Amino acid sequence: VVQNTCAMSFAWCFLWSTRWLAMRWSLLRQLIDTPASMEGRILLALVLSSGALAVIFVLDTVEDFLHESAGHMSLQEVRRVSRIIQIIINALSILVGFTWEHSFDGGVEAVASTTDHPVTMKMCMTAVVAVVIIPAWRRFILVKVLNLADLRKERLHASA
Q1: Could you tell me the pTM of the whole model?
Q2: What is d(CA 124, CA 109) in angstroms, rounded to the nearest whole number?
Q3: For the residues of 23-82, what is the DSSP string, one character each?
Q4: Letter string b/e over residues 26-44, b meaning 16 or more CB atoms within 10 A of that residue's CB
Q5: Phi-psi bin for 14: left (phi > 0), alpha (psi -120 to 50), beta?
Q6: Measured on CA atoms in the order 76, 56, 93, 147, is the torsion positive or negative?
Q7: Helix 2-24 and helix 75-112: axis angle, to 10°?
Q8: Which of 43, 77, 125, 144 has its CA 20 to 30 A from that of 104?
Q9: Which residues of the chain fall short of a pLDDT of 50?
């Protein structure tokens, strides 16, 4: 729980600090209005997603190298480093999710503001997204996560 809370805190702080830095960058202000605009939110999400992808690729390469040359380290050390890498990847994943949610929320707000009843429109769009996304999430993503958790348990029991 503490690790997830720290990962979420990191992601939230990193999102808002990069947004603050983007607001102070004169080149970006010339290209788009502000980071709070839709273009700014999408650009920030693309940049942070690309950066997170690069860091995750490097961490995955390090972890693969670590497992290949495990003879130099004890099994406990390899597991500890792998756990740290997994925590960092989870924090970056939360960051990517937050940035795209921030962009999506801005889009919903922009569309809803063009109607006579923006709050009602936001609620309707939220309901439509819930009806479409939640079943797809349960059918594809949740099943995959549960299968991977079972596979991890089997690996832990086999190596113990």
Answers
A1: 0.77
A2: 12
A3: HH-HHHHHHSS-TTSHHHHHHHHHHHHHHHHHHHHHHHHHHHHHHHTGGGS-HHHHHHHH
A4: eebeeebeebeeeebbbbb
A5: alpha
A6: negative
A7: 50
A8: 144
A9: none
User: Is the Cβ–Cβ distance between 44 and 22 less than 8 Å?
Assistant: yes
Give the integer Cα–Cα distance in Å for 103 and 112: 14
Report the alpha-carbon distance of residue 99 to residue 43 in Å, rounded.
10
Q: Using CA atoms, how far apart are residues 44 and 22, in angstroms rounded to an integer?
A: 8
How far, in Å, CA of 87 to CA of 51, rounded?
17
At residue 55, the pLDDT reads 96
Show the tokens assigned to 52.
Answer: 């997170």
Q: Which helix (H) or strand (E) holds 8?
A: helix 2-24
